[in-house]
Amino acid sequence: MGIISSNKSIGSVTSINCNGELQVSIGITAAPDIESHPTDIVLLLDRSGSMEGQPLADMKSAVGTFINIIASSTGGAPDEIGSGSHIGIVSFADTAVPNTGLITSVADLNAAVASLTAGGLTNHGEAFEEAITLLSASTNNKVIIMFTDGETTTGPNPSPIAATARNAGITIYCIGLVGSTGINVNALNDWATDPDITHVAVAPTSAELDQLFADLAANIAVPGATNVVINEAINPDFIITSTPSASVGNIGLLTANSFQWTISELGATATQSAIVTFTIQHIAFTTGTKLINASISYTDDQGNVVSFADPSVFVNCVPTIPADVCPTPIDIPIDGCDDFVEFNAGDLELEDTGRILQLDVNLLNVCPGKRVALAVVLTELDANDVPQPLGMKTFLLPAHTLPTCSDVLVTCIRFILPGNGETLCEERTVRAQFFAHYIDNDFRCCQQI
Questions:
Q1: Residues of the chain with CATH 2.60.40.740
Q2: Over 60: is that where the pLDDT of 353 sits?
Q3: What is the reported pTM?
Q4: Among 100, 120, 97, which residue's Cα sits nearest to residue 51?
Q5: Is the pLDDT of residue 338 over 90?
Q6: Out of 3.10.450.50, 3.40.718.10, 3.40.50.410, 3.10.560.10, which CATH number does the structure's domain 34-221 have?
Q7: Whole-angstrom distance between the N-terminal and C-terminal Cα of the chain?
Q8: Which CATH number fits domain 13-30+223-316: 3.90.78.10, 2.60.40.740, 2.60.120.760, 3.40.30.10?
Q9: pLDDT beyond 70 at 449
Q10: What is the C-alpha separation between 203 and 55, in angstroms, rounded?
Q11: How does pLDDT run across 249-299, given as a tens digit for each residue?
Q12: Is-contact 281 19, C-beta < 8 A?
């Protein structure tokens, strides 16, 4: 069967803060040659009311692609599934119906799929029961492929029924479609064989179903996979912060953003999964939806064609504006054998004397395209708790370009606090007052007629 599933995932995370972290998982599952290891496959096909129209049409096309790839890879007679393997069709809505038994006729399978019409609720539990019944007499490898576009709305709880199937040695794959009612990915993960990342795939639109079903069937003509090499490079806005951990094979870090995963043999004698997990951290300062991948490639000796999901995450970076800039440093050369160095640092204006107070302030809900005037007034309580002036600063803050009103962090507002003869160990009470308003506005005086 070769590589029968592959995926890349960041779980259910949809957004992170600017310097946030994510756990990334990459997984593949390989299985032996279907010609020498006959397999009986039951396709559970959702025909509930939410599948009406284009989703049903795209599902039929995708299932037809799957059936034809299986047939062409098993070496049987024309229009037949060979080598002792079979496919069965079970469709479900309010109830589940076995549209075929475990058969080999491609024409009969395609005809059963073409006859499906949409309508009714969604009964996943009964669908699993019908699949178990179909596979009960089989002595081949057993596989269930559950396709659905919604949550369970009628019938028995599918979770314990799927668990019974897995305990009986049946491998379960789940393909979900984000339909009009939404998809419960947690339920798919619960029903499918572990690991989830290689046994669960979700299509955002029905147009992508053909590729998902084709990927599942495309590599079944070759035995397992040997000398697997996966090169992973993440978006340069992120860095890898934990050494990737692989359940099978070896990891070699290439850069702070990339690594190579090698596996000598996978799924040569039985279905086998491999997964690698690692943590990444966002290091850029820009807000927006960002792809996790820069690139990912796969090769093996069998020529398996493998694709991986391309997850993305929204990164929220609060705009940061440094108010004061640090002085330019002076380079002081020191030779390796010098134990005494004398260097003339040039002229310095006396401005940073005494203590230095550095303030940050977060301006809330600043609208895009509007500059802000910011003032900071500093006072200090004297021995009689009377405020004495220490200084004032004003700033012109540039407008930000985010699509909505956002917080703006103003950093590095520095004040010099004269010592007044006190030692550094003496306590001082300093007060800061902040004032801010927009500069830009669309006000115009009324013109006299």
A1: 13-30+223-316
A2: no
A3: 0.53
A4: 120
A5: no
A6: 3.40.50.410
A7: 85
A8: 2.60.40.740
A9: no
A10: 11
A11: 999 999 999 999 999 888 877 778 899 999 999 999 888 999 999 999 999
A12: yes
Taking only the tens place, the pLDDT of each residue in 128-151 is 999 999 999 899 889 999 999 989
Position 64: which residue type? G
* pLDDT digit string, tens, across residues 178-221: 877 778 899 999 999 988 877 888 888 888 888 888 877 754 44
